[in-house]
Amino acid sequence: MADFHQNGNITTLHDLRCRSAGSLEHEISVYAESRKVTLILPSLYSELEGPALDHIVDELSKVSYLHRIIVGLDRADEAQYRHARSFFSRLPQQTAVIWNDSPRMLALQERLADLGLAPQEPGKGKNVWSCIGYLLSCADSSVMAIHDCDIVTYDRRMLDRLVYPVVNPAFPYQMAKGFYPRIGSGKLNGRVSRLLVSPLLIALKRVIGDRDYIDYLRSFRYPLSGEFAIRTATLPDLRIPSDWGLEIGVLSEAWRNMAPKSVCQVEIADNYDHKHQDLSAEDASAGLSRMSTDICKAIFRKLAADGTVFTSNTFRTLKATYYRSALDLLEGYYNDAKMNGLDLDRHAEEQSIELFSENILRAGQLFLENPHETPFIPTWNRVHAADMEFLTKLRTAVEQDLAEFTPEARS
Fold it and tell me: Running along the chain, 411 residues long, what does each successive block of 10 average in pLDDT?
C-alpha cells in the first residue's frame, strides 16, 4: 500500500519502501536510551500452544531497544503459569509474566470489588488494564506498545514501525494506531471492520448527520487493529473497556483526551493474518456476533456522550441504512478481491451483513434499555485516589508470583 494520501483528520504514516529496517531500528534504539519502551502482550494460555506465538517470541528476542516485556496471562493454572514462564524465558529483555488467576491477583481483585472498582468481566480489556497497572507501578517507561499474540505473519519490523512515531521526541504524536491489509490463505479477511464498522459509520453519518467523532473514526484504515503505541503519561487517565469494544474504546479515549494532531495511524505490514473468530450466528454471546454488538454499543455510547439523541426509530432507520451501505461496499470488496486473485464468498459475506444488521438493532435496544451502562474499567488515576498503595500492592503481587512459581525446566 505504498501511497502518500492524507485524509486531513489524522496523520497517516505510510511505508513508502524507502528506508531499510535496520536504520529505523537503530534510530529507535538511540531514542530508547532516554525514552524506554515497554511492550505489552495480552495472552490466553492456549496461545502458547497455537501456531503464532513461538515465532513472535523468536522475533522479539532480536529487538534491541525494548526495555521490558509484560505478558498478561489469562486462563492458566499453576502448572500452565510455570510453563509460560519457561516459554518466555528465552526473551533477553526484562520480562514479567503476570498470572492474572493467581491467588495474589485474585485477592487484589477482591480488594477492588470492596472499593466498587473491580473490572466487571474477564477478557482482553481486563488483561491489558492489569498490565498497564504493572507498567505504571514500575514508573520507568516513556512508551507503551501493545499487539496481539496470534499474528501468524509477525515480523519484528511491525513493532519498529508501530513505536517510531511516539518514541521520536521530534514528533507530536501521543498515540499511533497500526494498520495493514487483512489477507490470508488467499482470502480477503477483516469481516467486522469491512462489513460492520465501515458501513455503520457511513450509515450513522446519513442518519444523524455530520459528527466530528464519526469523521475521526472513518479516518482510520483499520480501526479494529489490536496494535497501538502510546506515551505512558496518558495512561493513568485511559478508560479501558471490559467488553469486545476495546479497540474502538481506546480510539474514543484518544478522541476524548488528545488533540487530533497528536494521534496518527501507521502502516506496519504488507500482509497481516491471525486467528479468526467464528460468526456465531446462533449464539449472540460469542464470536463475531458478540463482538459486533459490543462494538456498536461502544460507538452509540460515545455519540450519546457527545450529545446525540437516540430513539427506537433512529435505530430502525440506522439498520436499514446500514444494510444498503454494506451491500454497496460488498460490491467493491468483491471486485477488489477478484482483481487481486483473492477469494471472497459473497453468500457468506451477505450472511455476515444480515447478522450485523440485526445486531445493530439489538445493540440499540440494549443501549436504550440501559443507557447508563458503563463497561469501562476505572482509570488507574481513580484506583490510585481510592487506594494510594494499590499499584505498589500490584507490583509486589506480580513479583512475589515470579519469585515463588519458578519456571518449569525446559526440555
Answer: 80 92 94 98 96 97 98 97 97 98 98 93 92 98 97 96 98 97 89 96 97 95 95 95 84 92 96 73 74 93 93 97 98 96 95 96 94 84 97 98 86 52
Strand pairing of 240-241 and 37-44?
Answer: unpaired
Asked whether the beta carbons of 161 and 228 are under 8 A apart, the reply is no
> Could you tell me which residues come within 8 angstroms of residue 149 by beta carbon, excluding any fewer than 6 positions away?
41, 42, 43, 44, 47, 50, 52, 53, 56
CB 271 within 8 A of CB 187: no
Question: Which residue, chain included where needed, has cell 507498567?
Answer: 135
pLDDT score recorded for residue 19:
87
The torsion defined by the Cα of 360, 363, 364 and 367, in degrees rounded to 10, comes to -160
Is residue 159 within 8 A of residue 39, CB to CB? The reply is yes
Q: Which residues contact 83 (CB under 8 A, 6 or more apart)?
A: 48, 407, 408
Tell me the pairing of strands 263-267 and 175-179.
parallel
The answer for residues whose C-beta is within 8 angstroms of residue 258's C-beta and 6 or more apart is 174, 175, 234
How far is the C-alpha of 252 from the C-alpha of 167, rounded, in Å? 22
Written as one string, the DSSP assignment of 204-258 is HHHHH---HHHHHHHT-SSTT-S-EEEEGGGGGGPPEESSTTHHHHHHHHHHHHS
What contacts 263, CB < 8 A, 6 or more positions away? Answer: 10, 11, 173, 174, 175, 176, 177, 254, 255
Q: For residue 90, how many other CB atoms are within 10 A of its CB?
A: 12
Compute the distance between CA of residue 187 and CA of residue 40 in angstroms, rounded to an integer: 29
Q: Are 381 and 236 a contacting pair, CB within 8 Å?
A: yes
Say what the pLDDT of residue 327 is: 97
